[in-house]
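Appendix B. Raw example, untouched.
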Amino acid sequence: MFTGSLVALITPFKNGSVDEKGFEKFVTWQIAEGTDGLVPCGTTGESPTLTFDEHKRVIDICVQTAKGTGVPVIAGCGSNSTAEAIELTQHAKASGAEAAMLVVPYYNKPTQEGMYQHFKAVADAVDIPIILYNVPPRTSCDLQVDTVIRLSQVRNIVGIKDASYDMARPTLTRLKAAKGFIQLSGEDASAMGFMAQGGDGCISVTANVAPRLCGDMHDAWKARDLDKVFEIQDRLMPLHKAMFVETSPGPVKYGAELLGLCSAKMRLPLADIAEASKKQVREAMVNAGLIN
């Protein structure tokens, strides 16, 4: 269920509040463009600055909008508090999400054993498929391969989104993890390398503005049409890099604004991206054929 091109959804804001209608419209557009999965309330969704009520509401809107389409929702439910992560995961299950994604606890820097016990506690508390999320540059912690393999044996833990940039990990994990354990790249620019090493898909930032191209690239990979894979990857690579010219989701929200999909506004402490960064995003989108 959780393979191909999945999108780490942005959260649109309007007048300081979540733009609920804008978010619903954005999710509808993503589905129409062929996105394989929807991931609200992750890093790209600015989850750290959402209130608990907003966080739950965004997940509810995403689930309701996707209902009946066959496109799964993986709700971002991570926290550096295990109790809070359990509460958010319980809500994701109640809302009808197909899975929950839990980021490695940040700031308090748990050990490998602490991370194992954290994820196991959530998996034991809520009967829903769980995707681990390892993003060391954001969390200052790195969920090691041995710990991932150990967690793959825990009931309900079905996969990982890995943004460690380590291309050896998909193979090392696949060789010893539970059969069918899903591995999703969390980094657009190296997603095809991740796939070649045994990955199953990508939870993408770029797919917010180029869902059709990202989906086509993954479809071509599945069909082993490598000429098409490389042609699309060449078109997208400058865009992948532009999406991180400043702290995400600043660049991708600006790209979405260029497409008329939503406002580029973010919540402090994230600020509008610089003019030079806007120029790089605009040029990359022109290069990809997304705007004139």
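End of appendix B.
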